[in-house]
């Protein structure tokens, strides 16, 4: 910790400090209280899809342990907690019948949070699509967007009197391209046309849900993206800059332009038209997608470098049509995910969004890192400890980068660390630990890592 930049920095008054999680990654209890199956249940039970055959069946058992988990949040001094609602708990078949026991759970969670003075920030969709909707085409079907808006209204009707901040989707880039393009996430399809169609229906679902939430009186409505900080291997190469433009189009502008400028970019549509006839785009959709938002969530972990290299394989199903572009192997300091650690890219990314899409407040809704944490043997107190200086350094560097963006005029409202708890890291199963709190899965014991103690002090001081 001594190696950290000692320069003290303070965040603006009212800056929101918190942590984030997602339903399928922490809740467990997948068969309880009428919850229906989701695409992640199906996917994780398909051999070869998730590391070691891990599933979310137990996860952190948060469904039963939420009172002590909220107590932990209070102990850390969190002001906000971002969690997702599991659609298949609310509508087990994806549409129609509502399961009251599912709503009851989030009702209790929200009351517990508010009782501790912690602001709930709801994500309505963090990837656990009801399997029944996938069976009818999932996000490649326009109907899914409409059902999503129905579901959003159902959840708001129950919790809207106590929850102010509502975000629709988490990282539609992952849901569309990893789910339907590369197939490394559920539902595991590998079809570029499906991926691009899913992008549109996710955005449409966002717009319809945003409209419904607004009509129901939600005060803050937003969406969370994982915009890529795309950088050229050689900044002086025009060809590398052209590669940046394409990848930026497929990852960032395809979402940000319709959301915040009301139109898909022409160059991106032209690219997409190589794979689909664009029949899924209907008159009025862009207007729906551009429903005004009050908050843009930014999830950031690592930069994306690209270079123009004739013959290079490109980004595969996650970036359809990028043959001739190389995504080089990450270099320098890496996290356990193999992701580069480059805080400057966060400053640049936030500044770019604020410049090109002015007027919408930003919040870092996820930032954090997986490292090879080890629970140190129990001390006399029996508590144990988890030294994670590497995570502290990562968080410190990225908080300084966020602060630098604020100093450059970016309207950044808060920072939510990913994640509160070690959890089910999607295709990586439980082997990658992102938590500031260690979870000993066999016993379900929680142990604050050093980074959790450190974060509590950061929050207390409103700075570093
Ligand atoms: C995000 N990628 O996922 C999610 O919002 C979290 O649920 C997740 O646990 C966290 O980041 C850490 O991975 C991503 O391959 C998963 O580019 C994969 C990618 C990006 C984000």
From TrEMBL:
GO CC entries: cytosol
Any GO BP annotation: cellulose catabolic process
Active site: 171 (proton donor), 366 (nucleophile)
Keyword terms of this UniProt record: Carbohydrate metabolism, Cellulose degradation, Glycosidase, Hydrolase, Polysaccharide degradation
Catalytic activity: Hydrolysis of terminal, non-reducing beta-D-glucosyl residues with release of beta-D-glucose
UniProt KW Nucleotide-binding keyword: no
EC number(s) per entry: 3.2.1.21
InterPro entries the UniProt entry points to: GH (IPR017853), GH_1_N_CS (IPR033132), Glyco_hydro_1 (IPR001360), Glyco_hydro_1_beta-glucosidase (IPR017736)
Source organism, top-level taxon: Bacteria
Keyword Zinc-finger set for record: no
GO molecular function, one term: beta-glucosidase activity
Family of the protein in this entry: Belongs to the glycosyl hydrolase 1 family.
NCBIfam families given in the database record: BGL
Entry protein name: Beta-glucosidase
Record organism: Micromonospora polyrhachis
């Amino acid at each position: 910790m001594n190696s950290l930049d000692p320069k003290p920095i303070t965040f603006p008054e009212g800056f929101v400090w918190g942590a984030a999680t997602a339903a399928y990654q922490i809740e467990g209890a997948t068969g309880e209280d009428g919850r229906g199956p989701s695409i992640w249940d199906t996917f994780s039970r398909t051999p070869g899809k998730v590391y070691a055959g891990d599933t979310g069946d137990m996860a952190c058992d948060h469904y039963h342990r939420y009172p002590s988990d909220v107590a932990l949040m209070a102990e850390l001094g969190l002001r906000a907690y971002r969690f997702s609602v599991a659609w298949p708990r609310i509508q087990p078949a994806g549409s129609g019948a509502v399961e009251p026991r599912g709503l009851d759970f989030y009702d209790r969670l929200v009351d517990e949070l508010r009782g501790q003075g912690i602001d709930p920030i709801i994500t309505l969709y963090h990837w656990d699509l009801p399997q029944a909707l996938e069976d009818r085409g999932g996000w490649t079907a326009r109907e899914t967007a409409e059902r999503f808006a129905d579901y959003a209204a159902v959840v708001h009707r129950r919790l809207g009197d106590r929850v102010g901040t509502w975000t629709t989707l988490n990282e539609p880039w992952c849901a569309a391209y990893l789910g339907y393009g590369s197939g490394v996430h559920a539902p595991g399809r590998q079809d570029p046309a499906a991926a691009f169609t899913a992008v549109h229906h996710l955005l449409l679902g966002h717009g319809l849900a945003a409209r419904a939430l607004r009509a129901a009186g939600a005060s803050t409505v937003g969406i969370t993206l994982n915009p890529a900080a795309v950088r050229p291997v050689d900044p002086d190469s025009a060809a590398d800059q052209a590669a940046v433009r394409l990848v930026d189009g497929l990852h960032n502008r395809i979402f940000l332009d319709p959301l915040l400028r009301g139109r898909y970019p022409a160059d991106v549509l032209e690219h997409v038209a190589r794979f689909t006839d664009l029949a899924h785009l209907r008159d009025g959709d862009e207007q729906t997608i551009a429903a005004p938002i009050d908050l843009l969530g930014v999830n950031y972990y690592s930069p994306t470098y690209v270079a123009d290299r004739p013959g290079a394989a490109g980004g595969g199903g996650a970036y359809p049509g990028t043959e001739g572009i190389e995504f080089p192997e990450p270099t320098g300091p890496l996290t356990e995910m193999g992701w580069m650690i480059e805080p400057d890219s966060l400053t640049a990314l936030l500044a770019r969004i604020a410049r090109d899409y002015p007027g919408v407040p930003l919040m870092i809704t996820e930032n954090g890192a997986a490292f090879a944490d080890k629970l140190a043997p129990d001390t006399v107190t029996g508590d144990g400890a988890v030294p994670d200086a590497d995570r502290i350094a990562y968080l410190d560097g990225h908080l300084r980068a966020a602060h630098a963006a604020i100093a450059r005029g970016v309207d950044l409202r808060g920072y939510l660390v990913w994640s509160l708890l070690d959890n089910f890291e999607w295709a990586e199963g439980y082997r990658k630990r992102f938590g500031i709190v260690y979870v000993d899965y066999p016993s379900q014991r929680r142990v604050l890592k050093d980074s959790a103690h450190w974060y509590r002090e950061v929050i207390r001081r409103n700075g570093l």
